[in-house]
Amino acid sequence: MNCTLFIHFGSPKNQHEVGQFVSRIFKDQLPTILPLYSRLFLKFPLELIATKKSIKKYESIKFDPSYINNIEKLRKAVEEKTKTKTFVAALYGTPLIEKTFAEIYNLSDEMKEPFAINRIKLISLFPHAPENLYNTMVERIQNLQIEYQNDIKVNWAPLFFDNPLFISLWVDCIKAAINQLPLEQRETTHIIFSAHAYPKDNESSEYEDQITSTVKKIIKELGDSIQYSIAYQSAAKFGKWTTPTIEDEIYRLSSQKVSCVIAPISFLFENIETKLDIDNKFMTYEKTTVVRTSLPGDSPKLIEMLSNMVKQNI
Fold first, then answer.
1. What pTM did the predictor assign?
2. Which CATH class is domain 164-292?
3. What local confidence, expressed as pLDDT, does residue 286 receive?
């Protein structure tokens, strides 16, 4: 029997989970931000500061459960559409990949042929994945395969940043946002494609190439006359990150007196980055009109796309 496993970033459900959430992120991502000698001295104070700030941020949105709820709705919809047992696991939140894998393997051991699970289709819910993040996912899955020494095969689905249905659903979201603007502003609207910032060196990364590919395909559908740019959000206060920032881009465009539509294309679900780092900062921006698109969530096109991915090569 086959099953599907969706992997997502995760989000703490309460104050107790925030510390663990931040600690796991630091363990994986700090090496890409700071050199070894800096990490030895700065890891603990930086992690403590980040935890305190994160608690305040999540408390300000009352630990909004919509992120987790949307993923569960999506899981149920895809499971029903594909008739394939479907699980979800988080890189940094709960349930962790390790816990969900244990559940799958234990379930497989309890079931008898031909109903035992013999193949897992892994689908990342990151439309775009920086190399370090993707490698972290792969490494943790490989370690679990070694640990359990089970005959269950694991198949990775490709990232869907250029999937036609993913492009189409974002075209729909952007058109709906443009229609929120007054008629006289729509012709001069500038679209800011926002993606999560990521630590980088001086070279262009595969992550940035993935973002650019998505944007070009969306613009092709919207029309080449559309004015647009790519910006990055939610960077940490230390280290070198992808640029330009969304703050700099909105400030630049406000001087040109054009309306802005923010399309956060690296996110599928509402989360702290969309609610705080975009909505709280820019939806009441006085120097120009700014609107944000809705997010895919559990939209029919997203369900169709993921269901098709489940069925492929299974």
1. 0.93
2. alpha beta
3. 75
